[in-house]
Amino acid sequence: MAEDIQQKLEKYRTAPFDARFPNQNQTRNCWQNYLDYHRCQKALDAKGVDTAPCDWYKSVYKSLCPLSWIEKWDTQREDGTFPGKI
Amino acid sequence: MAHQAHAYHMVDPSPWPLTGAIAALLMTSGLAIWFHFHSTTLMTLGLILLLLTMYQWWRDIIREGTFQGHHTPPVQKGLRYGMILFITSEVFFFLGFFWAFYHSSLAPTPELGGCWPPTGITPLDPFEVPLLNTAVLLASGVTVTWAHHSIMEGERKQAIQSLALTILLGLYFTALQAMEYYEAPFTIADGVYGSTFFVATGFHGLHVIIGSSFLAVCLLRQIQYHFTSEHHFGFEAAAWYWHFVDVVWLFLYVSIYWWGS
């Protein structure tokens, strides 16, 4: 299972089609993957397990999200003002 | 002596439409003057002129209908159409604010945390004062119907009592809502939640006050024997308006207070 994830991450080119977000506006896609990465990190850290699988979400949001959004959200998380539930 | 050969009402020339238009001009420009030059004189003048216009115009309609007999059945039919069309236009007015609410709440943006209520907003408990408010308005709908039947059946005392009770319930709603506004943990400036909540419920509250005033005028008229058991359109118009206000509240309660929490 972990090898598959590694292979997936190595083969990564860009965010694949996600049927949950089929339309032109991909805001929710970016937002969801950003949340999922940080939730994954938090959950696997709490269990003391390797967080490598989480890097998939990171690759996706890094492909999709505008850099300014990522910077803004990272700053908000540091300040404790991030509005999303992680 | 010439008499009209038709049942319609050719209204005598009246200055009130002009004073009403002037009032509208003074209030709008007065608002702009207030915003930019910190003076409320023009706007206050407009407000006074508006109140005078409303008082005198509607007083004249009462004179024409109740005292001079100009409100024949076809004339009354026209008044009915008028009130229905006006209420319909108000329905569309509120529809806009409901559209705004659903636009923002069905697909909450990342800025809100992707959730509704937005992150940081503690909504009011729909089963506390808002539920009481619902009961108050529903009860007032019953009492206004009671008043109508009393008028139709010539029960003068009951009509006065039930109409007064309706108005008291309206005032009770207003008082409760004012207290809720004062005590609320969020303000109109708190993002789109605050905006949609206070603009929608605020305009509704204004309509409750207008409706209560309309009913109060009807109470005074009932006391002064204006209404007959067959002809009391002023009261019917007030009752329709009151039911409309009640229905708007029900939609507000279910959408914003209940689903929106």
TrEMBL record, chain A:
Keywords: Disulfide bond, Mitochondrion. Disulfide bonds join C30-C65, C40-C54. Coiled coil: none annotated. It comes from Labeo rohita. InterPro entries: COX6B-like, CX6/COA6-like_sf, Cyt_c_oxidase_su6B. Component of the cytochrome c oxidase, the last enzyme in the mitochondrial electron transport chain which drives oxidative phosphorylation. The lineage of its organism: Eukaryota, Metazoa, Chordata, Craniata, Vertebrata. GO terms for cellular component: mitochondrion; respiratory chain complex IV. This is Cytochrome c oxidase subunit. It is found in: Mitochondrion.
Automatic annotation (TrEMBL), chain B:
GO terms for biological process: mitochondrial electron transport, cytochrome c to oxygen. Component of the cytochrome c oxidase, the last enzyme in the mitochondrial electron transport chain which drives oxidative phosphorylation. The respiratory chain contains 3 multisubunit complexes succinate dehydrogenase (complex II, CII), ubiquinol-cytochrome c oxidoreductase (cytochrome b-c1 complex, complex III, CIII) and cytochrome c oxidase (complex IV, CIV), that cooperate to transfer electrons derived from NADH and succinate to molecular oxygen, creating an electrochemical gradient over the inner membrane that drives transmembrane transport and the ATP synthase. Keywords: Membrane, Mitochondrion, Mitochondrion inner membrane, Translocase, Transmembrane, Transmembrane helix. Component of the cytochrome c oxidase (complex IV, CIV), a multisubunit enzyme composed of 14 subunits. The complex is composed of a catalytic core of 3 subunits MT-CO1, MT-CO2 and MT-CO3, encoded in the mitochondrial DNA, and 11 supernumerary subunits COX4I, COX5A, COX5B, COX6A, COX6B, COX6C, COX7A, COX7B, COX7C, COX8 and NDUFA4, which are encoded in the nuclear genome. This is Cytochrome c oxidase subunit 3. Belongs to the cytochrome c oxidase subunit 3 family. It is found in: Mitochondrion inner membrane. Its main location: mitochondrion. GO terms for cellular component: mitochondrial inner membrane. It is a multi-pass membrane protein. PANTHER family: CYTOCHROME C OXIDASE SUBUNIT 3 (PTHR11403:SF7), CYTOCHROME C OXIDASE SUBUNIT III (PTHR11403). One of its GO terms (molecular function) is cytochrome-c oxidase activity. InterPro entries: Cyt_c/ubiquinol_Oxase_su3, Cyt_c_oxase_su3_dom, Cyt_c_oxidase-like_su3, Cyt_c_oxidase_su3-like_sf, Cyt_c_oxidase_su3_a-hlx. The chain crosses the membrane at residues 16-35, 41-58, 79-102, 129-147, 159-177, 197-220, 240-260. It comes from the Eukaryota. Residues 4-261 form the Heme-copper oxidase subunit III family profile domain. It catalyses: 4 Fe(II)-[cytochrome c] + O2 + 8 H(+)(in) = 4 Fe(III)-[cytochrome c] + 2 H2O + 4 H(+)(out). It holds the Pfam family COX3.
